[in-house]
Design goal:
binds molybdate ion, 7 helices, 4 domains, elongated, Molybdopterin biosynthesis moea protein, domain 2, binds ligand LQZAQKY5, six-stranded mixed sheet, about 400 residues, metal-binding, Molybdopterin biosynthesis moeA protein, domain 3, Molybdopterin molybdenumtransferase, alpha/beta, Molybdenum Cofactor Biosythetic Enzyme, Chain A
Length: about 400
């Protein structure tokens, strides 16, 4: 199978996966989830005409005779008669018949009378009343399905009366590290390599919107061990790290053949990260059974995670592929004919600047970066490039 262009691989991963049936969760537990259905207002906001300022609610021409006080939480403020006023607090319901609220700063109160101050100018002409339903009416669609539930969305959901929201279940992922040389703790001995991907992938996937249930190591001894580990995976996504290339113990392709998996992506025309794989188990629906092969080289694995894993999670959560912002990039990005390069960049006043020394085998440059720039073959220094923001 021919290596796919980077853009195509990315969009394909998002298009192929579909979300599972939604679930209702309390708004307190919904942060970071994705709306499965549009968020609609259950009540009007504001729920009643209320004062936008502390002052006096008045009716008709002034001066006004002061007849009482209305505080926030008052269930029934009554009605105002012509040429009368009530003292009113911000957020309190405005009595029926009131024309406006005069803020304290613009009012004179003497004895039982309230009048506009002589020096109030025209500021008092504003009515300082927030009208029922001016922000939302019951049934209004406030956000479409596919929206990320941010803290702000939750605050708004509370404002419109929601106790629960309908969201997409978070996909789960199991990470399978391959390689007899990999050690997961302590200092590596001769010929050994300390694992970089076990620490990287769970929080990276959490940022994409998926939960890693476990990280385990599969030895290089035979393809059967990797086939068995993949067959035993019940999570929606199995992430295989390493074993994606053509080496003598690179067993991923043999394992996929053993599972009769459908291989949708086998190689991406990007550098680093070319030997990456997206496959699907034929016995599963498109909301589960996904297998993603990441190259063993850690920076190549990071690039592949942004290329295939993040879009796959976007598809599984119904979020869709996010657009990539475009900014001017300077520095040595070294475009390659026929390939998309992904290079770590940092912000500076002029845009984004390439962080030097971005080898496939080490995360040092990416660790200093704010984003990865997508460098196409026709890029020239200071030209714009799309960015993947690091999460
Ligand atoms: N003849 C060819 N050889 C290679 C090609 C090719 O096209 N033809 N592609 C090269 C590229 S590009 C990459 S990337 C690697 C990908 O190899 P694998 O995905 O099969 O990964 P491994 O061989 O298992 O390991 C590669 C490298 O990464 C280290 N590694 C593996 N896992 C981890 C980990 N969890 N933490 C840190 N480092 C890890 C491993 O020790 C190796 O050094 O293939 C090239 N070869
Ligand atoms: O493309 Mo490999 O993924 O250079 O390290």
């Amino acid at each position: 199978m021919r290596a796919l262009p980077w853009n195509r691989a990315r969009t394909l991963a998002a298009e192929l996966a579909t979300p599972p049936p939604p679930e209702n969760v309390p708004i307190g537990d919904a942060a970071g989830r994705v709306l499965a259905e549009p968020l609609r207002a259950l009540v009007a906001v504001p729920g009643f005409d209320n004062a936008a300022m502390d002052g006096y609610a008045v009716r008709g021409a002034g001066p006004w005779r002061l007849t009482g006080r209305v505080l926030a939480g008052c269930p029934d403020p009554g009605a105002l008669a012509e040429r009368t006023a009530v003292e009113i607090a911000t957020g309190a319901p405005v009595p029926a018949g009131a024309d406006r609220v005069v803020p304290y700063e613009e009012a004179n109160r003497e004895g039982g009378l309230v009048a506009i101050r002589a020096d109030a100018g025209r500021a008092w002409v504003r009515d300082h009343i927030r009208r029922r339903g001016e922000d939302a009416e019951p049934g209004d669609e406030l956000l479409p399905a596919g929206s990320l539930v941010t803290p702000v969305v939750l605050g708004m959901a509370g404002s419109v009366g929601a106790d629960t929201v309908s969201v997409v279940p978070r996909p789960r992922a199991r990470v399978l590290l391959t390689g007899d040389e990999i050690v997961r703790a302590g200092l590596p001995g001769p010929g050994q390599v300390r694992d970089a991907l076990g620490p990287l992938l769970p929080p990276l996937l959490a940022g994409f919107g998926a939960d890693v249930t476990g990280v385990s190591v599969v030895g290089d001894a035979s393809a059967a061990a990797l086939t068995a580990a993949l067959a035993a995976t019940t999570e929606e996504i199995a992430v295989v790290c390493g074993a994606s290339s053509v080496g003598p113990v690179d067993h991923l392709h043999a394992a996929l053949a053993g599972l009769v998996a459908t291989v949708h992506v086998n190689g991406v025309a990007c550098r680093p990260g070319r030997p990456q794989v997206l496959a699907h188990r034929p016995d599963r629906g498109t909301d589960t059974g996904w297998i993603v092969g990441l190259p063993g080289n850690p920076y190549a694995a990071l690039v592949a995670a942004y290329t295939l894993l993040a879009p796959l999670v976007a598809g599984l959560t119904g979020r869709g592929l996010p657009g990539l912002p475009t900014v001017a990039v300077s520095g040595q990005a070294r475009p390659v004919p026929g390939l998309t390069r992904l290079v770590p960049v940092r912000w500076d006043d002029s845009g984004a600047v390439v962080v030097p020394r971005d080898g496939a085998g080490y995360l040092g440059a990416a660790a200093q970066a704010d984003a990865l720039a997508v460098i196409e073959p026709d890029w020239t220094p200071h030209a714009p490039a799309r960015l993947i923001l690091q999460c």
